[in-house]
Design a protein that fits this description.
With 265 residues, the chain is an alpha/beta fold. It has one domain: Rossmann fold. The chain is built from 8 helices and 7 strands, in the order βαβαβαβαβαβαααβ. Strands 3-2-1-4-5-6-7 form a 7-stranded parallel beta sheet, sandwiched between helices. β2, α2 and β3 form a beta-alpha-beta unit. α1 crosses α8, α4 runs parallel beside α5 and α6 packs across α7. The longest helix has 29 residues.
């Protein structure tokens, strides 16, 4: 099975921590040249030091400081970086922190618009910037890290449920249109994973329900057949596989990595 990513360039959003950092780490181990992307330069610099150089002296990693709250500024930053480095990206991992939790009936129009820009618009923007290079080089992997809520909406995540669904439909449409060029587009759907995002969700539920955080965690674990939260590295393994030559005939699908929690196939 060909899992070698030597010579492939990967752009990994939200890669200063959590799932994004784990994905970048795994892609680097498989030989890819990784561009780390996040808002905080100090975290990116540390992340760069931690990346593997498994492919030898020719393997190169770099980073880009970018904020997804402003799509046009993001576009300008990525265009400058691609011009400066003369890079064609073969792997695009779209990973953006989820919208704040809360009931959909309490959500404001601004929250929906902000989440749509962060998740849908920026993913489309990055894809259109990079797909021509993928076509030219004959290799393209676009992987969106979203949520199991695209299968079954999650309680207390009204805005997230709405926007994640839009991303999933966009992804399937993009997979259909880019398939003729050998470019695959897939979604990885993490369940409850040991990240800052999970801590935020637990803390919010604890505060709103007036119960202890450990009680909230026990309730969440009770819904997971495997009886534990995912490690970021376990989600990263699924993303990395989809990025490899071995996954060339897998496109337009949702891959839950949730310990069996989602109540549908």
């Amino acid at each position: 099975m060909n899992l070698d990513l030597s010579g492939k360039n990967a752009f990994v959003s939200g890669s200063s921590k959590g799932i994004g950092k784990a994905v970048a780490t795994e892609l680097a181990r498989l030989g890819a040249n990784v561009t780390l992307v996040a808002r905080t330069e100090t975290a990116l610099m540390q992340g760069l030091i931690d990346l593997s150089f498994s492919a030898g002296a020719e393997q190169r990693h770099d980073y880009l400081v970018a904020d997804y709250s402003n799509p046009e500024k993001l576009r300008a930053a990525v265009e400058r970086h691609m011009l400066k480095t003369n890079k064609t990206y073969h792997i695009l991992v779209n990973n953006t922190g989820g919208p704040p939790s809360g009931k959909i009936t309490n959500a404001t129009e601004e929250e929906f618009l902000s989440a749509f820009n962060n998740h849908r618009i920026c993913k489309h923007l990055l894809t259109t910037l990079m797909m021509e290079g993928m076509k030219k080089d004959g290799y393209g992997r676009i992987i969106n890290i979203i949520s199991t809520s695209v299968k079954i909406p999650l309680k207390g995540l009204g805005v997230s449920n709405t926007i994640r669904g839009a991303v999933a439909s966009w992804s399937k449409t993009m997979a259909n249109e880019l398939g003729e060029y050998g470019i695959t587009v897939n979604n990885v759907l993490p369940g409850a994973t040991q990240t800052e995002r999970l801590k935020e969700i637990v803390a919010t539920k604890s505060e709103k329900q007036k119960i202890a955080a450990d009680v909230v965690e026990k309730e969440m674990l009770a819904e997971i057949p495997l009886g534990r939260f995912a490690k970021p590295e376990e989600v990263a393994a699924a993303v990395a596989f989809l990025a490899t030559p071995a996954a060339a005939y897998i496109s337009g699908i949702n891959v839950p990595v949730d310990g069996g929690r989602t109540g549908s196939l």
